[in-house]
Amino acid sequence: MSKEYRAHFRCSAGCGETYPLDEVVYKCKKCGELLEVQHDMEALRERSAAEWKSLFDSRVGTTRWPYGSGVWGKKEFVCPEIDNENIVSMYEGNTNLFWAKRFGAMLGMKDLWVKMCGNSHTGSFKDLGMTVLVSMVNEMMRRGVRLDAVACASTGDTSAALAAYCAYAGIPSIVFLPSNKISTAQLVQPMANNAIVLSLDTDFDGCMRVVREITKNNTIYLANSMNSLRIEGQKSISVEMLQQFDWEVPDVVVIPGGNLGNVSALAKGFSMMLELGMIERRPRIVLAQAERANPLYRSYLKGYSDFEPIVPGKTLASAIQIGDPVSVRKAIAALKEYDGIVEQASEEELADAAALADRTGLYACPHTGVALAVLVKLVERGVIPRDARTIVISTAHGLKFSEFKVGYHQGTIDGVKGTYANRPIELPPDVDRVLEVLAKELVGRKKA
After folding, report:
1. Would you call 266 helix, strand, or coil by DSSP?
2. What whole-number distance in Å separates Cα of residue 155 and Cα of residue 395?
3. CB-facing half-sphere around the CA of 117: CA atoms within 13 A
4. CA proximity to 205, closest of 321, 93, 100, 39
5. Three-class SS of residue 35?
6. What is the CA radius of gyration of the chain?
7. Which among 181, 248, 196, 193 has a CA at the least distance from the CA of 389?
8. Under-50 pLDDT residues of the chain
9. How far apart are the two ends of the chain, measured CA to CA in Å?
10. Which site from 12, 68, 111, 277 is most exposed, i.e. has the minimal number of CB atoms within 10 Å?
């Protein structure tokens, strides 16, 4: 079915250069800018908007390979030329929209939702892009292209996704991690999936410089988000959210950002549906950054007149502790097109927001905490209307950051008071004493 559709790389700066998707190339050879995947929109328009919606809806949850995946159920929009037998998928995507009823009520919002992208195989939204990239690597190897391994620099989630998908396909993987800057769970994941794990005494940006050098010989394939195949999988979030709302467009989407591929992916998904007549308007996109790793926020304050990389400070939101994001140009273009806002959150703000959300049934990672803290700020300032249908993108599962949770509730995080800390109550095994404490505690915790 998808063989009639085509896609290729093209220069994102518009210089006209194009390359086939099975070529080992990450930047335009003419001008040096990042590439993007361009689809044959004329061919895609041969199906009506209603037909596309019906087709995608019919595939949700199917066992017909590979269309039950939240990504590959939209294969024609993602990477149409890969043979289905070469697709490497764990049926990623199709993650739930959590109606944040109680958290929203605290803000006076009735239509607040959290897109639980961390409810995925490796516990983060990175699975959505990695299934596409590793599938293309598998296809290229089947076509006779020499590729010895796939490599990435990572703050934890990218490396977990790469290692898992490569292990599934039987392809060697190499991950570069900054020493002592990621959670134990994130370190263990690529180790368990038999990746070559290299822990470097630097930050993410230093790891990124190394991996770009070692992939220059084209026999080790680069898996970071400067490789625009990743963006094609991540943009499926936009389509999936609309499916879950019977194809109604939300008013606002809030997303945390570090290397910034995710915000351009989000916008690309909406733009593709807009061009095909599947939707009639754009949502507003809000990008949330940690205050200690906020280069785009600083640029936003100056109207994007310039952008200067920074050396990021240590932040609880370790996955977005990035000072020189590779996808900044595409992110700025997306934000301009989508009436975008960039806002930041302090360490205490993000930690408290995650803890408050947890009290309403979530188990938020610190990066989701950044997005929730930014949401609170913008609602309180009246920038986001309280009656707006708003979706917060949760990028990872909180279980990957249990050290962060323990530190918060035990009061051991420097500079964070822990407004909503909930420490265990140490008691002797005395029933009367237990009942006495419970009576006191239950009074304070009655449902509002």
Report:
1. helix
2. 13
3. 29
4. 321
5. strand
6. 22
7. 248
8. 1-3, 448
9. 53
10. 277
